[in-house]
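Bug: token stream looks shifted between consecutive jobs. Job 1:
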Amino acid sequence: MSAAPWHPGTRVALRFVRLAREDPALGAKLRELDPEEGLEPVLELAAREGFAFGVEELRAAHLIDWGLRSARYSRVSPPKAASTVAVVNRASSSI
């Protein structure tokens, strides 16, 4: 069963994920963990840092975080619209 995005544990896990990305000391602690041990060491580290959530909440938070960052960094600029000033000042404009 996956945690819903609005689940309180998912929100806590999102805060932890953001802090892990922004805080060099926490990031270093996470990099020291052995990926072969699964997510339990991550949950234990999070608990020592004052965050309480489960595996499913962490997975949901990771999915949300990646989705938001993907949307942010893959934005395509909208086509440029004609400037109102340029349209008004065109020689063919009549008032």
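Job 2, same session, no restart:
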Amino acid sequence: MNLESLSRCVDLWVIIMANADRIAIELTLAELLAINNALNEVCNGANAIPEQEFQTLIGVERSEAQGTLRKINALLFGVSG
């Protein structure tokens, strides 16, 4: 994400910290749940994105998206692993 894109997000979320490879933002529980559900759908849903298209469409490898999903699940539901 470039600085121009980041500056457009400032009005939408509270940005706690941002540098070249990490951004910390404040989300409501509903926003985090929506991200969780969207990631779960693209990774595991009935119409999950095929492996060969995942990186192109989502911007990260499926394994990275699944790792993010596990972290979010741990926050929301106390589930790890």
